[in-house]
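Hi L., both proteins are below.
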Amino acid sequence: MIHLECQCGHACNVSESFEGTRVKCPNCGCDLALPDRPDIPNPPATACVTQYQCPQCSVMITSPLEEVGKTATCPSCGAPCTIPAPMGIPAGASRSRWSGLAITGFILSLAAVPVPTHTDDDVALLVIFLSIVIAGLAVIFSVVGKRQIASGRRQRGKGLSIAGLVIGCVDLLVYIVVLCFWAAEVFARRG
């Protein structure tokens, strides 16, 4: 496999059977040149561009992606044109976004942090079970979020997913121990 990185920031692996050819970036559509041999560094990618029509004369204009959001002058009629982002890349968008699953896992792990239980047995049992469920969900969301980030979907939040996983596991252990002590205490009082 040949590793390529586009100027838009998207990285991908391409089969060696495409050596010496050009492929399109799946993210922005610009041409990427593949080297003839994988041990030779990849030549710089051709400039990623966006194409758009002049609002006055409808002439097609090509501008580099670095110019998105700026104003250009139409080479045909001289009218000012705001350079739009290509489809799929909103203007001013960051190259990566936060993983919603990692954020959810972290927040749930904080929501399940052990709190003092009530003296009423029914309320205490409800609080313990709800906390175990919330901590379990935190672990699940954190693991799935971490896998999603690791799969190369250009998402951030690896640290949040790890923190959510660690805090969620600690919460689970603490609440299972609390449940055991609470059950032993209840049985001792009743028995």
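That was the first. Here is the second:
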Amino acid sequence: MNKRILIIFAGLLIFAACGEKEIRFKYVDAEGGLRMRSIPDLKGEKITTIPNHKKVSILEEKEDTIHISGKSGKWTKISYNGTEGWVFGGFLSDKKFPSVQDNTQTAEENSGCKYANKSLQNFSSGSVGEGCGPDVPIYSFSSDNSAWVDSDCESGSKGNWHINGNKIYVKTVITPVDSAEYGCIMNAVNSGDKERCLDQYRHLDGRITYNYIFELKQDGTLERTGNIERTGNFPTSLNIIKSGELSPINMGCLK
């Protein structure tokens, strides 16, 4: 009897060992964080944004490689802090990043802001913003005075910037074709399909101009104000964007 019990127990151990999956980990490599979605599609519901450099568990990967924001990768199902969902694998890395300080703290607390008690006199390039979405996008300022507004960590708009005193002025313009291009690229099978998709929007004369003003504060953070100017005709999907003043918002440290 004891021998039979030992054989059964050994068999259960072997079965458990064979059925156990190896857990893989990767790290987020996206400056503004990485959006987790309910399904492996850009139209999927946004569950949360995973902060940059955080460790995630890999559960599943789709076979097809796709391209988003100049990155190549696969839709990947992950687990983070007990929540499961899908992310674009092009913003995941095998590299473990060193821990970094939270730049949202003020200079008085930890001197974390690079431009605390400084001016913009020698500023030539940098960025501000820690998240994704219309309220806290990432604004990047290049040395050639071009600007990039990353509105959802996957797409955005281009423009230009200049400095006057302690303020950075940014102007970006979105046309109907600009607003549709990302969706047309994702849904197109080939370049011809993309052009046919964009043809639906080329007759529209709309323009949405964003005039941003970033004022450098003494603690090294930037306060964003400005306005939106909308003219002409746009797809109904953009009717939510109206002309008007932007409410002041502190964007955190200028980096």
